[in-house]
Amino acid sequence: MIYLRVFFHNATQPGEPNPMIRTHQSSQHAEPLDTHQKALEVNLDPRRYGTFAEIGAGQEVVRWFFRVGGGAGTIAKSMSAYDMKVSDAIYGRASRYVCRERLQAMLDYEHTLNLDRLREVRGETTAFFTFADTVSARNYHGTNACHGWMGIKFQAHPQDEDSQIIIHVRMLDDEAALQQEALGIVGVNLVHGAFALHHEPELLVASLLDGLSTSRIEIDMIEFSGIAFRHVDNRLMSLKLVELGLSGAAMFAASGEVLQPSEFFYRKAILVERGSFRPVCNVNLDMLQSAREQFSKHPNVVGKEVVSVMELTMNNLKAAGEINLSDFLARADVMATCGMPVLISDYFQYYRLAAYLSRYTKEKIAITMGAGSLLELFDEQYYTGLQGGILESFGRMFKNGLQVYCYPMLDPERGELTTSENLDINPQLRQLFGYLCDRGGIIDVQDYDPACLHVRSRDVLQKIKSGDPEWESMVPESVAEVIKRKCYFDYQPADAFEDAVR
Source organism's superkingdom (predicted)? Predict the structure, then answer.
């Protein structure tokens, strides 16, 4: 349901919804506003006044606000600086033409200019804003990466402190004109969302592709900051991007800062460990560290920067049905204590993960996994959706020289180790397995810590829930500390557990 509230005066109190903008209801049956309606409603709100600064793909966003009418009451200035030297002269030098650094400089400069020029004249009744984007749309030869940075810095209410939203988009249309059209739409969605839905950031995220589809635009990073978003956890917003299908993957650092994959992975060798991390155990870190030592010695990796990443898949997060946000944040926190960046992906099939990572680097890529997971990798049921089955999957996965580092698995009853050399592969696939091993696609981890082999996440989790203190020796000290301090994974302090037993 969508409704319109009409007022005959402009006065509103801080925290009240904008009277000139229709409020989106959270009902799944609500029809989204179209781009024309959104731009018009912003123009009809007498409080909103600001600048549009767009570089690289034309004035695609501001054009909507001119087109629908009433723009004179909204647009203080519209500008575009196509020439790099002109852009540098206005906003200062940046490392690249299309980068976050340049976008932030644009937002800061133009917003400060508006406040300095107009705050005394109309600051009591005006909520100022600046929208900016810097974009690389498809060039004439079709050889460039089509992406862009887009953001809005704004006052939610007159005289309010600043708030800001930044997104990174990938444009997927084959024609420049279609890319420009899509940019205009997502830009209007961002502006309208900032004003109408800043108090409901999850709905704001969901509204960004109104009028578009994921076949045209991908949003792989979003960051909220400022007074209006002081309670927003950007890790949850990253999760939301993937959950809603706006992106196949999203990233954040151990600090919780959101990361843009193309910048984080640029020109780096990549090592990924996939897991549930409920919680991070000693074996998880040993798997990464021992694989990294071998990977770093590869002739094509020596002397180059290697980044290690922990990956959570949507399949894992939804294993019990709907995503449990508290559980997700608990996992994120224990990974953060280990200093690890986190990749959330919707790439359950490893060949899709490999293709995703190959998009951002030309350097070597490696995945480390336990022998049990490697055995699952050769289960043909996972590839029935591919016309070429498991052969097509492995062809895609290993085509760029990707390597899998196999961490040994200990049989606790017999005390035997399972490695790639004695893995019980389906007889029909042994020749394929042998081929991958012979060409260096599958490698056993060598310098592992034998003391870690008996540790399993599910056993640790059970010991935490049952109050068995042995679990503390099975996880890094920093992980144990945060679990006890925040009572993650159903942990109960010893005295509380004893009371519950009584």
Answer: Bacteria
